[in-house]
Write a structure and sequence with these properties.
alpha+beta; Rossmann fold; two-stranded parallel ribbon; 2 helices
């Protein structure tokens, strides 16, 4: 079975426009999704534990990490 390649038109992002998406955790998946969403024009809230390396990384990437309720 051949791999199917997906393009932008295959995954419209219109349903997320005008909404805030909370990403819980800024680990290997969280930081990738957060940046991709932000680059697509979506407002992103990042929840991460203060004082952790991923908290610092989120700040370095231009996010202001908060708790889950606020994100």
């Amino acid at each position: 079975m051949a791999a199917k390649i997906h393009y932008e038109a295959d995954a419209p992002i219109d349903a997320l426009r005008g909404k805030k998406v909370a990403v819980i955790g800024y680990g290997s998946q969280g930081h990738a999704h957060s940046q991709n969403l932000r680059d697509s024009g979506i407002e992103v809230g990042v929840a991460e534990l203060k004082g952790t390396p991923n908290y610092q990384l989120a700040m370095e990437h231009g996010f202001t990490p908060t708790d889950i309720k606020t994100a």
